[in-house]
Amino acid sequence: MWELRSASFWRAIFAEFFATLFYVFFGLGASLRWAPGPLHVLQVALAFGLALATLVQAVGHISGAHVNPAVTFAFLVGSQMSLLRAICYVVAQLLGAVAGAAVLYSVTPPAVRGNLALNTLHPGVSVGQATIVEIFLTLQFVLCIFATYDERRNGRLGSVALAVGFSLTLGHLFGMYYTGAGMNPARSFAPAILTRNFTNHWVYWVGPVIGAGLGSLLYDFLLFPRLKSVSERLSILKGARPSESNGQPEVTGEPVELKTQAL
Hints:
It is a multi-pass membrane protein. By secondary structure, the protein is mainly alpha-helical. The chain has a single domain, classed as Glycerol uptake facilitator protein (Up-down Bundle). The protein has 10 helices and no strands. Helix 3 (69-77) packs across helix 6. It is globular.
């Protein structure tokens, strides 16, 4: 519980709230229909991708810029943050998402609000198919995050922020035709709360959480294993201080330095 007495811990929690608020505000805002006709998928995909890239650059060094309960769950599965920090992150993300959607609702004309870009299944897509799509979308996203955030990589090329943003954009370019591309339970939760529409809402939790967990296991245990003992992983999950972890470096979910190079 020592984390609760750390100023950096609370700065990270606020950063997650603040970042998720802006992510939902700009992402959902770009997804509203201001004129008749089909929604431009590329516009929405780029809006979400650029919003996340901007926020990774802005708060990545403070909280890691998870901005997504599924991503936080992935880092928890990989024993890269404490359980306490993960719970606080998720609460902050959900509150930030609802706050962002509420601000968007208040500044948008009633005729344009619609369902606030609520995630819905495309006609003909079953809940099983939708869940599998969400799993795959989030799996590739988490793999990209783990690879680009990995402090063990030498000579990382390009921009971490842009790599993560492009991965999210890719997911939207494909997923919007199937599920509206949730990939983020907080993003799906916010409009559902404001519109009181939870039809098939569980898909946008189960799919991303499973995909994120699989991505974490695949990267941390198969593709690029982290050689930690069970006791080390448990001490990290408990948020133990270095002295309580047999002198091992403290790992409690603090973000790694996001070193970038010009493209």
